[in-house]
Design a protein that fits this description.
single chain, alpha+beta, 2 domains, nine-stranded mixed beta sheet, 10 helices, 12 strands, 37% helix
Length: 314
């Protein structure tokens, strides 16, 4: 199987791979922690267990993270690592669900449960970028049970026309995903984050104003091509490009020109051509693409694309 999807729940729209459980957009389960965690196949716990060498000696300073229902080893972690149970991740959304300020959109696990995510739609007005283009507001919580990444929670803006995730491109510090390390204090840290959501929403609106600047910035075909080369960190002289680099350049330029909602004539289209490539084509598998978008090279490329687009619009 090309992807390492483990389980998941999707409301209104099926996942890219057709797996998992899909329910109608108006399903009551969107507001139910118990129903959503069960339907997403996430009603299991993790625990730390000691590690032993082949001769029976215990490995000091490290433990194995074990998935309770299957006994699978999800990762090896240090002594300070404290697992955040799936149910605790869902409970973080409880006050928003109870007040109907948000509803679950998607949730699930990858790589046998190593990575877990919860995405909830926030009941706040969409940001109108202009020209009929809008960006919706979501809360995204991700956590790893293998120790590879901190728990992250924060706003995740998604462009309505093509479902591009733009979270990596937010330049305002308060708008970026807030990270909480897997230590004993993470529960208190998550509670503190909840108190800052309204402030983050304000900073999100400030970022939406930056998106409007990108829409107002006109680009020539030559400007577009030069921008994409800068984002991809390619040389100006295209005769020096490898065949693979030349194909990637052509793909991204085409997405900026003819991708969903794009016309190739503005910095907004140019930026969204890059985000479309990162979220839909970058990487070898859907799972590597998702990890790259949240934690790795895809996120860094998105940051670079947004910064360069703002330079064009300044």
């Amino acid at each position: 199987m090309a992807h390492l999807f483990n389980s998941g729940l999707f409301f209104g729209q099926a996942a890219w791979h057709g797996l998992g459980t899909t329910l109608p957009a108006d399903s009551p389960a969107r507001f139910s922690i118990d129903d959503s965690i069960r339907l997403a196949g996430l009603d299991w716990h993790v625990e730390k267990q000691p590690l032993f060498l082949g001769d029976g000696r215990e490995v000091e300073g490290h433990s194995a993270v074990i998935r309770g229902d299957s006994g699978d080893v999800l990762g090896v972690v240090g002594d300070r690592y404290q697992p955040l149970q799936n149910r605790d991740q869902f409970r973080w959304f409880a006050p928003f669900l109870e007040s109907r300020e948000c509803a679950f959109e998607t949730c699930g696990a990858l790589n046998g449960g190593q990575l877990v995510w919860v995405l909830a739609k926030v009941n706040r007005p969409d940001s109108d970028i202009g020209g009929g283009d809008a960006v919706r507001k979501y809360l995204l919580l991700t956590s790893s049970h293998d120790g590879s990444a901190a728990t992250s929670v924060g706003f995740c803006p998604i462009r309505v026309v093509c479902w591009n995730t733009l979270s990596a491109g937010l330049s305002h510090e308060a708008s970026k995903l807030l990270k909480v390390k897997h230590t004993a204090s993470q529960a208190a840290a998550l509670a503190a984050i909840r108190e800052t959501i309204n402030l983050v929403d304000e900073s999100f609106e400030a970022t939406a104003a930056q998106y409007r600047k990108l829409l107002a910035c006109r680009l020539s075909p030559a400007d577009l091509r030069r921008y994409v080369k800068l984002v991809l960190e390619l040389p100006e002289d295209e005769t020096a490009l490898s065949g693979r680099a030349r194909n990637t350049l052509a793909d991204v330029v085409e997405l900026a020109r003819r991708g969903v909602g794009n016309d190739g004539r503005t910095a907004w289209s140019a930026y969204n051509g890059v985000t479309h490539y990162i979220t839909h084509q970058y990487g070898h598998t859907a799972d590597s693409r998702l990890r790259a978008n949240w934690y790795g090279a895809g996120r860094r490329m998105n940051d670079r694309a947004f910064s360069l687009a703002l330079q064009l619009a300044s």
